[in-house]
Fold Aspartate aminotransferase family protein.
Amino acid sequence: MNKITNHLPTAELQAIDAAHHLHPFTTGDELTQKGARIIASAKGIYLKDSEGEEILDAMAGLWCVNIGYGRDELADVAARQMRELPYYNTFFQTSHVPAIALAQKLAELAPGDLNHVFYANGGSDANDTNIRMVRTYWAEKGQPEKKTIISRWNAYHGSTIGGTSLGGMKGMHEQGDLPIPGIEFIEQPNWWAEGGDMDPEDFGLARARELEEKILEIGEDKVAAFIAEPIQGAGGVIVAPDSYWPEIQRICDKYEILLIADEVICGFGRTGNWFGSQTLDIRPDIMTVAKGLSSGYAPIGASIVSDEVAKVLEACEFNHGYTYSGHPVACAVALENLRILEEEGILEHVQNVAAPHLAEKWKSLEDHPMVGEAKIVGLMASIALTPNKETRASFAADAGTVGYITRECCFGNNLIMRHVGDRMIISPPLVITPEEIDILIERARKSLDEAYEKVRDQGLF
Ligand code: PMP
C-alpha cells in the first residue's frame, strides 16, 4: 500500500478518500463524482490545495481560525505542553496549570460575573453540558420541573444528540428521531425571509415576544432556559433587528429563565468585542464557547457560567465530564491564542480597520442585480440572493439552488464563501487586511456575475 502523503496525485487521494472516509454534511455522490478538495497547507488567510491553488478562505475554516493559519507560536506551545504533560484529567479533584490558567483568563475576559469554566471538546458537547447543567441547577434549587429549554427554529447548536436537539434545523431533526423531549422552539428573527410587510423593528419585537408567549404556554415554573446565538451563524448570518435582544433580555429577567448565549461563532473577536453578548448588550447566565477559543488549532470548548450557577452546581456533585475536559494541550494552545488576540490588538484591528472596510465593500454588493440585503456585524456577513429586491422574493427553484451555483462560482475563483439556502455568508480570519478584503470582494463580485449569468440561462431570474 502506498504511504499517503501530500505528494500523491490528487485523483489518487480523492479515490482513497471516497472509498474510506465518511464525511460530515457531504453526499457520497459529491465525493465519488467530483472528489473532495484536498487542502495541503495554509498561511494567513490562504489555503493551498493539492493542485497548488491558493484559495482565499473567507470562512476561516468553519468560522474558527480567528488569528489566521500558520502561527508557529501555537505549534511550539503544543509541542512543549505535550512533552511536559500531554494528558491528565480534571476529574476527582485534580487539576493542572493549563486548565487553571485558561479558566482564570476566560473569567477575566467574559462579561459580568461569568467567572467559572466547565470544559468540553467543542461547541456541541458544551451545549450538551448546558442541557444537563441548567436542569441540574433548577433541580438543586428545588424546582426539578423547571427543565424545558426554549430555542429557535433555524438555530445551530451542534451535531450531538443534545446539540442537534437544541438546534432548530429540521433536516437534522429528521435524522435520528430528534429533538429529545423537553426542547421547544420559537420562530427566528429573520426579517428578510419572514418579515412580510412588517417594519423590521416591529417584527423584531413580535419575534421576541414569542418567547414570552411560549413561556406562558408551557408555564414559567417548567422553563429552565432560553438558548440563542447572538447572531445566527450557520442559519445564514441572520442579524436580528435592534428591537429584538432588549426584549428577549427583559423576558428572561422577568420569568427567571436562564439565558444561554451560544458564542461558539460570535466569541473571541468575531463581532469586534470579545463576545457577541457585549456587542449586542446581552447579559447571559451561561455562554457556550469553542472555535475561536483556540482559533481551531486544537479542539476545545467550554461553558462559562455565572457565580450563581456555579455556586449551585458546586454544592452538589455534577456527574458530568469528558475525558478531555480541560485537555492540557488544548488549554495551552487556547491560552496562547488568547495572548496573540490580545497582545497583537486583533480586536482593535477588527473594530477600527477590518470591519469598517469590509462593511463598506460588502454593502456595495447591494448594487448587484441578484443581491438583496447585505448584512454585517464585525467580521461576519451575509447577502441574500433574490430575483426581486423589492418583494424579497425567492427564486423559482428549490431553496439553495442559486446559492449552490454561486458557491461553485466562488470555488472556481479560489474564494471560499458558503451558502445557506440562497444566502451567501462569510466569516474571514480576523487578521484579514484591507488589501485582502479588496481581493475577497473582487472575487465575490466576479463570482456573483458568473452565477447571475448561469441563473439567467436557467430562466430563474
Ligand atoms: N454552536 C454554534 C453556534 C455553532 O456555530 C457550532 C458549530 N458550527 C456549534 C455550536 C457546534 O460546535 P462544534 O462543531 O465545535 O461541536
Notes: The domain at 73-343 is CATH 3.40.640.10 (Aspartate Aminotransferase; domain 2). The first helix runs from residue 10 to 20. The chain has a mean pLDDT of 97. The pocket of 4'-deoxy-4'-aminopyridoxal-5'-phosphate is lined by residues 62, 122-124, 127, 156-158, 163, 229, 233-234, 262, 264-265, 290, 301 (CB under 6 Å).
